[in-house]
Amino acid sequence: MEQDFVGTKRWIRQATPYEIYMEEQNLPIHRGTVGFYDIRDLTLGSWKRMGAQGAFIELNGCGGLQGMYVIEVPGAGAITAEKHMYEEIFYVLEGRGTTEIWTGDDANKKQSFEWQAGSLFSPPLNTWHRIVNAASGSALLLGVTNAPPIFHMYRSQDALFNNPYQFKDRYDGSANYFKAHTELGKDPRHGRARNYGNIIPDADRVELPLDGQRGVGHRTFFWSLSGNSFQGFIAQYAPGRYSRCHAHEAGPVLLCLGGKGYTITWPGEAGTTPWADGKGELVQRQDYKPGGIVSAAPGDAGWFHGHFGASKEPLRVLAFLGGYPRRVKGVPGVDWRGLNLDIKEGGNTIEYRDEDPHIRRMFQEQLAKEGADFNMPEEVYL
């Protein structure tokens, strides 16, 4: 039978503008299905443009939404100053130093702040910034950006890196701009805790308020630094406890800050009880320790996943949720059902009582291997 339609129904995907940019940097590009046990072990290469060592990270589920890289600043050295039209968040894996910020072409009017291992900060959009290592040993930072969609929108590196516009509504150069906030506010949408500061000096140890939405005894606060649309949260689970399994859009990435654990994830079409329904082979698992990273929904939107603190210490994670573009549903004023709502009530969360029994058994087995105790209250399963 002759073809009765125009064109083809299958084709080879072309590289995006951001993927072309990555290739041009001649750095290692580490692609992982779900994540990496410890990104500090990744091979780095010479990053000529930045005057440092670095490597890109591409996890499934993040393509076209978030850009990630690790950069190593030489001892007593600094990276090349730059500015750009995409948002960028840094988490310090190792080392200590300062970051210099300025606008326009006057580098004499710099503002600087200090950072250490565990610090989380973001240079304001399109400000000049230079990261300086204050120690004799190298410093290692994770950079997370919303560069991929911005590259795709502009399709011009000159427009991205040499744009003179100054976002004065985001950065005013005030002396207290990078002073840490010691008190938390409430997100006006859902009333949960939010840190409205522009730097978090020690994400590894900052106090987190009790939240409970994601799991029993769960602690968290949200952040969005330097006026960004990009946002995230820091969360902690007590030893021997784990989150409720839940589903959401692809894109969010979790970095382990403390303790040890793992994340399991599976496609939504496998249902809420994949092992019980004979589909356990579809479940993927990524183990991690501090420095480990995982894509929460590596396949596509609607993948279920859960996070498990399998050690004697609390599991603390840093989530990079992303920013632009973000899908908008409904119209202004519509009743919004959060993803932490029970799936039986229109949300995206599987309550402990309804989860696959294999999830608890697997967690108990892992805790036993670590010499840690199972600490989930029995009543949550009733």
Report on this structure.
With 382 residues, the protein is mainly β. It folds into 2 domains: 17-161, Jelly Rolls (Sandwich); 185-326 and 339-381, Jelly Rolls (Sandwich), CATH 2.60.120.10. The protein is built from 4 helices and 24 strands. It has helices at residues 17-24, 147-154, 157-161, 357-370, and strands at residues 29-32, 35-36, 45-47, 52-59, 67-73, 88-94, 97-102, 111-115, 120-121, 128-133, 139-145, 185-186, 193-195, 199-200, 219-223, 231-237, 245-248, 253-258, 261-266, 284-288, 293-295, 303-309, 315-322, 349-350. The strands form 4 sheets. Strands 1, 3, 4, 5, 6, 9, 11 and 14 form an 8-stranded mixed beta sheet that branches. Strand 4 and strand 5 (67-73) form a beta hairpin. The longest helix is centred in the C-terminal third of the chain and has 14 residues, at 357-370. The chain starts with 16 loop residues before the first helix and ends in a 12-residue tail after the last helix. The mean pLDDT is 95.
